UniProtKB/TrEMBL annotation:
SUPFAM superfamilies: MFS general substrate transporter. It holds the Pfam family MFS_1. It comes from the Bacteria. The chain crosses the membrane at residues 12-32, 38-60, 72-92, 173-191, 212-233, 245-267, 279-299, 305-325, 337-359, 365-387. The keyword Nucleotide-binding does not apply. This is MFS transporter. It comes from Microbulbifer epialgicus. Residues 1-389 form the Major facilitator superfamily (MFS) profile domain.
């Protein structure tokens, strides 16, 4: 059965944002070469935008609970589009030699701040709105569809930019403007929806239950695990498989694209067919732990791809599982999805930092941090299921 048009539109909005993220990351070497920006400056700009996403996500979610999803999405998309136009314009000006890094860095930083503060509205609003539009009994299917849409975007992003990459120029940056513009137009086409009175009651206190806190902990630790795996992938390919830096970078890019597509296929083909969120959650935790152990055991051989595949399948089951469980038990969906977005962003950030730090200090145990965080995922998952029951 096909989804209603509004749900399909929201799905395409999420897909466009996933594609935009990957296109920018793929352009980093070209930006360094053509614009004269240092890697440290680019990293700082990306981190600044990420920090703003973490700060603004819960606030946008709360605002959506009060005034509705469509106004929040329109405001966030408009601000993000303006910020991207400024960001791309500055980079192109620098590529033409008309602006130096020292003169442009503050304006670039301002554009990333505006972008981060506004783009933080997208995922919480889309998730909460999709849940409200759909059948309450099909929350797992709805949320797995949105997660699959984000993975699809991350997989398709490099394909959109590939023709311009081959030409060796900065043309792919235009997608940073076209994608949010398309998302804004899609948002404008969505029907307005009044906020139900029960969604926001100023005098009513809303508190998180103990099982919800445990589910939030699994979200944080799960993305921390993925962040660690992503950051050590390139160095591990060099150290354990003997690849050159260029070959390791190319292989890492292909693996990340394959991971995104694999997650998409699992969520569309398997997760959406499940009826009970607890089952998806349990399958996710089991596969995540199994894949991590297998990956650690056979890392250094080509068979490690099977461990990686099981790990990716676990994460594909896990995210919609705990998202659906949280949406069932927490009344104000916008705020909940806002906090979930904050924890996801924070988890990846922690994973990047901890994974690189541990890899340098314990190269003989490259997956030590991953095994620790996945073990904690299992502990908090058991606590959440016990308290939920």
């Amino acid at each position: 059965m096909r989804r209603p048009l509004p749900l399909r539109t929201i799905t395409w909005i999420v897909t466009s944002q996933g594609a935009a993220q990957v296109i920018l990351l793929a352009q980093i070497p070209m930006i360094i070469e053509r614009c004269g920006l240092s890697l440290a400056s680019i990293g700082g700009l990306l981190a600044l935008g990420t920090l703003c996403v973490m700060v603004a996500g819960p606030m946008w979610g709360e605002l959506g609970d009060r005034i509705g999803r469509k106004p929040v999405l329109i405001a966030g998309m408009t601000g993000a589009l303006i910020a991207q136009c400024l960001f791309v314009g500055l980079l192109l000006t620098m590529a033409q030699g008309r602006l130096e890094e020292a003169d442009a860095i503050l304006a670039l930083a301002a554009s990333r701040v505006v972008y981060g503060l506004n783009i933080a509205a997208i995922y919480p609003s889309c998730q909460a709105w999709a849940v409200e539009l759909g059948d309450r009994k099909k929350r797992l299917s709805i949320l797995s569809g949105l997660s699959a849409a984000a993975n699809l975007g991350r997989g398709l992003g490099p394909l959109l930019a590939l023709p311009a990459f081959l030409a060796g120029n900065l043309f792919p940056l235009i997608w940073l403007i076209l994608l949010p513009l398309a998302a804004l137009l899609l948002t404008l086409s969505l029907p307005s929806r009044k906020v139900a009175q029960k969604q926001y009651e100023p005098g009513k206190k809303t508190t998180l239950s103990a099982d919800a806190l445990a589910l939030f902990a699994t979200a944080l630790l799960g993305t921390t695990s993925v962040g660690q795996l992503q950051v050590i992938m390139g160095p591990a390919l060099q150290d354990l498989y003997g690849l050159s830096a260029l070959s390791a970078s190319a292989t890492t890019a292909m693996l990340l694209a394959a991971i995104a597509i694999c997650g998409f296929l699992v969520q569309v083909g398997l997760v959406r067919r499940l009826k009970v969120p607890q089952l998806s959650f349990m399958l996710g935790v089991t596969s995540l732990c199994t894949g991590s152990i297998l990956l650690d055991t056979i890392l250094g051989s080509l068979s490690a791809i099977f461990g990686l595949l099981i790990f990716v399948m676990g994460f594909a089951f896990l995210v919609p599982g705990y998202s659906a469980l949280l949406s069932q038990s927490y009344q104000r969906g916008g705020r909940m999805f806002g906090w979930l977005a904050l924890l996801h962003t924070g988890g990846y950030t922690i994973g990047f930092a901890v994974g690189g730090w541990l890899y340098e200090r314990q190269p003989q145990q490259p997956l030590l941090g991953l095994l620790l965080s996945v073990s904690l995922v299992g502990v908090f998952a058991l606590i959440a299921l016990f308290l939920k029951k």
